[in-house]
Specification:
The protein has 309 residues and is an all-alpha fold. It is built from 13 helices and two strands, in the order H-H-H-E-E-H-H-H-H-H-H-H-H-H-H. The chain has a two-stranded antiparallel ribbon with strand order 1-2. Helix 6 packs parallel to helix 11 and helix 10 packs antiparallel against helix 13. 31% of the residues are buried.
C-alpha cells in the first residue's frame, strides 16, 4: 500500500518522506519518555502532599518542625522532627568535610598533573568505589572504622555519626572527583596558556585560572554529592544506628530521616495510622530540603557559569 502511494515520487523524495516519518516517530517516543518522567515526578509529589496533609491534620505543623523529641512509635508519643534533621545534617556535613577537599584535590591531580598513563589507571580505580554496594560500606564502617575510632577516642559509641560520615564521604568521593575532573578538563587550554604567558606558575594557573573557570561544574559536583549524602540509607543505618538523638557530638548514635523511613516501612507499623503517616511527613520534609538545595545550587551555577566557544 505504501509503495503504491509512493510510486509517483522520485527515489530522493521517497527517502526524504520516509526519513521524516521516522523522525516524527523518534520525536514522539522522546516526548513520551520526557512526559513519563514529568508525570512520575508529579505523582510522587501528589502522594507525599496528600499523605502529609492527613498527618498534619492531626499533628501540629509547628510542633513537627520545632519539637526536639522524636518518639512517634512509643508512648508518650512526640513528633518533633529536629533529631532526625540534626542527624541527617551531621552526616552530610561530616561527609562533605571528607569528600569535597579530597575529591577536589584528586581531580586537580588527575586533570593538571598526572600523565595519561597514570590517569588511565587511577581514575578507573577511583570510580570503582562508586560500584561498591552501600551495605558493604555499612559493615566496613561497623567492623573497621568504628574500632579505629574507639582506639583513638575511647568515648566512641558502637554506633556513631562519625563512622557514618566517613563511609558516606568515601561513597560520594568518586562523584566529586570525577565531576570536578571533567569540569577542569573542559576549561580551554588557551586560558592556561594565557596565564603562563603572564609569568604565572602552574599552581597559580590552577588556583587563579582553571578553578574559577570551572567553578560552575565544581559547585554542581558538590551539590550532587550533598544530595547523595542526604539520601543515603543503609550505610548510615548500619554505621550510625537508629537513635533519634538531637546532638552535635559525632561520637554518639543518631538516626537520619531516611533511616527512620526504612524503619517504619518494614511492616511492623499498621498502614493508615498516624505512626505510619509520619514516613510521608518526613519524606516531604526531605524532599523540600533537597529541592531547596538544588534551587540554591542552580542560582550559584547561573551566577558563576562560564560559556566557552
Amino acid at each position: 500500500m505504501l509503495d503504491s502511494k509512493l510510486s509517483g515520487f522520485s527515489s530522493a523524495q521517497i527517502n526524504k518522506k520516509r526519513f521524516r516519518v521516522g523522525e516524527e516517530i523518534v520525536r514522539g517516543l522522546l516526548f513520551l519518555a520526557a512526559f513519563l518522567s514529568v508525570i512520575t515526578t508529579f505523582s510522587i509529589v501528589a502522594v507525599l502532599a496528600q499523605e502529609a496533609a492527613t498527618f498534619f491534620s492531626e499533628v501540629s505543623f509547628w510542633d513537627f518542625l520545632s519539637g526536639t523529641k522524636w518518639t512517634p512509635l512509643l508512648e508518650p508519643r512526640s513528633f518533633g522532627v529536629l533529631p532526625l534533621v540534626g542527624g541527617t545534617l551531621l552526616i552530610v556535613v561530616g561527609a562533605a568535610l571528607i569528600a569535597i577537599p579530597i575529591g577536589l584535590a584528586s581531580a586537580i591531580y588527575l586533570a593538571e598533573y598526572s600523565s595519561d598513563q597514570v590517569r588511565s589507571v587511577v581514575k578507573p580505580i577511583l570510580e570503582v568505589l562508586a560500584g561498591i554496594p552501600t551495605v558493604v560500606y555499612g559493615y566496613f564502617a561497623l567492623t573497621f572504622i568504628t574500632p579505629l575510632l574507639e582506639i583513638v577516642l575511647p568515648s566512641t559509641k558502637i554506633f556513631n555519626a562519625a563512622s557514618g560520615s566517613i563511609v558516606v564521604g568515601i561513597m560520594v568521593l568518586p562523584m566529586v572527583a570525577s565531576l570536578c575532573d571533567d569540569a577542569l578538563r573542559a576549561v580551554p587550554s588557551s586560558l592556561r596558556q594565557a596565564g603562563y604567558a603572564l609569568g604565572a606558575t602552574q599552581f597559580e594557573v590552577i588556583l587563579r585560572v582553571a578553578l574559577p573557570a570551572a567553578l560552575s561544574g565544581i559547585m554542581a559536583s558538590f551539590v550532587l554529592a550533598a544530595s547523595r549524602a542526604i539520601g543515603e540509607t543503609m550505610a548510615v543505618t548500619l554505621a550510625a544506628g537508629a537513635t533519634p538523638n538531637l546532638t552535635f557530638n559525632p561520637l554518639e548514635s543518631i538516626q537520619t530521616m531516611t533511616a527512620y523511613i526504612v524503619q517504619v516501612s518494614l511492616g511492623d507499623t499498621p498502614a493508615g495510622t498516624v505512626e505510619y503517616q509520619t514516613i510521608f511527613a518526613v519524606a516531604s520534609l526531605l524532599f523540600a530540603m533537597t529541592l531547596s538545595l538544588n534551587i540554591f545550587a542552580q542560582k550559584i551555577l547561573n551566577r558563576f557559569r562560564e560559556v566557552y566557544d
